[in-house]
Amino acid sequence: MGQTLTEKILDDHLVEGELETGEEIGIEIDQVLTQDTTGTLVWLQFEALGLDEVQTELAAQYCDHQTYQFDFKNTDDHRFLRSAAGTFGAHFSRPGNGICHQVHKEHFAAPGKTLLGSDSHTPTPGGLGQLAIGSGGLDVAVAMGGGPYYIEMPEVVNVRLEGELPEWATAKDVILEMLRKLSVKGGVGKIFEYTGPGVETLSVPERTTITNMGTELGATSSLFPTDERTEEFLSRLDREDVHVDLQPDDDAEYDDEVVIDLSELEPLIATPSMPDNVVPVREVAGTDVEQVIIGSCTNGAYEDILPSAKMLEGRQIDRKTEMIVAPGSKQASEMLAREGWTAEMMAAGVNFSEATCGACIGIGHVPASDSVSLRTFNRNFEGRSGIEDDSVYLCSPEVATAAALKGEIVDPRDLADDLGDLDAPGLEMPDEYDGSTTDLIAPDEAVDDGLVKGPNIGDVPLKDALEADLEGPALLKMDDNITTDHIIPATQDILMYRSNIPKLSEFTLSRVDESFAQRALDTDGGFLVAGENYGQGSSREHAALCPMYLGIEGVLAQSFARIHKANLFNFGLLPLSIDEADYQQIEQGDDIEIVDDVDEAVRSGQEEFTVRVNGDWELTATLDASEREREILADGGKLPHTRKQYDAG
Ligand code: F3S
Prior knowledge:
Elements: H1 5-13, E1 14-16, E2 24-27, E3 31-34, H2 36-48, E4 58-62, H3 72-88, E5 91-93, H4 100-107, E6 114-117, E7 131-134, H5 137-144, E8 149-152, E9 155-162, H6 171-182, E10 190-195, H7 204-212, E11 221-223, H8 228-236, E12 256-261, E13 268-270, E14 278-280, E15 291-295, H9 296-299, H10 302-312, E16 322-326, H11 330-338, H12 341-348, E17 350-352, E18 372-375, E19 391-394, H13 397-406, H14 412-419, E20 440-441, E21 470-477, H15 484-487, H16 492-495, H17 501-505, H18 516-523, E22 526-530, H19 542-549, E23 552-557, H20 562-570, E24 574-577, H21 580-585, E25 591-594, H22 598-604, E26 608-613, E27 617-622, H23 627-634, H24 638-647
Parallel strand pairs: 3-4, 3-6, 4-5, 6-7, 9-10, 9-12, 10-11, 15-16, 15-18, 16-17, 18-19, 21-22, 22-23, 23-24
Antiparallel strand pairs: 1-2, 2-8, 5-20, 13-14, 21-25, 25-26, 26-27
């Protein structure tokens, strides 16, 4: 039986397991990327692994999320990241040089290679045949150290593209149509592989808009085959040497199929506040628009901004609408400036931002209250723009620009009819990409003498291996559905301590019990007790790392959220399931003692543990863990476990 393109790339990189849907596989990682809000912890963890040098073919550190440096702690983070990249052998992209996915596409993305990144839109270079996956920071640190990355083999879905896009329909409409059809949960546990005659009608920047926003489908990754257009794109970047022809076999078998006829697409828009609330633009035409932003890792490329510039040439945007352009990279910015397009857009009333994520995560350009903002971004979750009751729509640059010209949402086809002289800009590729590269510092150009840590940057705490005896007080008893936000709040004033674990730990579970962190330190640890679904929410590693720093040994809960449970293993905390009657009977402050030889029991695969409470009654708790998770847990977490593996050679 033939292979899908996904299977071919995974097969080339497989170090453990078999390519059977749902089975755990370990793959070798060729490239890694990190950004500024996740990168500090990645490097601190890499340092804690005790390695001198990045082991992957390539690593790149970007500074894109918090480039405005509104506090010295941000600037210190950027300086630390530069010094870490130089010390350990990664490329460093300076603040303002651009958004990680755009800059990576321009300089490093390579067909057939694997890429792991500590950012959810890492799959972007799937548009040029790279198998790219987003993950937690510790996985990235371990991959940089040469360790495999483990995932469950996803389903591979064939997305067959037929026909060709009509005028005014764009790549953004392709992925919005996917979201309309499949919803934000439609891609969980899946890789979308694009095939069919429609593929060759799309340029690489169009393909990467689609693969970028595959993340909003919940997909593990999205992938295009390579062809002459890929080779041509790489040669314009002066990187044709990395091109390889990649196609699925003719008789490849997919787990599922979706067909999209490009010729039937029309301009679409995601209405507030979910990327899958997709309707044709004409259905919401006439809605007043106060703000329009073009940019982000989805639509911030030169090829995304040029159509907007052409539409604005010789025209003025509406007086009550603000329009901001935040290019995805400085290279795109520089090319538009050299060609005179920046001046044209400014004359039309546009404000330019530095190349940054910024507004995409509510840093700058927060919309006015009770107003509509049209953005070319990938997410419009409620409150993400920086104001609680926001009203953010997601669309193509063409639809956003049409709205800026009219001051209200308008189907660009209708605007063209009204104006009479507005042509569909279509897609134009530059002859070559020729921005300066002074903002990219290669590993052999390091400018710092070793790691530079400001006062807010500490070390990553490490846990000792499990011992035979484990006991301590039930320090906190919680209800059902405790979220990672309850464990470590994500507000700006707290998250600026993400590289300072002792300080950040002071806020652990403060939303549940303000005195918790101090009590945990005073008693030198103990246990947490919780009801159902403990740790739901995000993949935030700090929600396991900070309790570990405070000395917490384990969590006794009725059930755990999947990702948080994985993080508990990664940081060496014992996740034990208990039944409801026992949960009801345990009181905060009770003495908890695990009767079994804990180290021995965990390593040997024992599932049931006897827990003695206050020395006078016992309950049975369950440990549900794979062999690999048990080894990690027993060694004190993934960092000490990986270190031990390195030491063993
Ligand atoms: Fe940045 Fe928003 Fe993309 S935060 S990486 S532009 S999703």
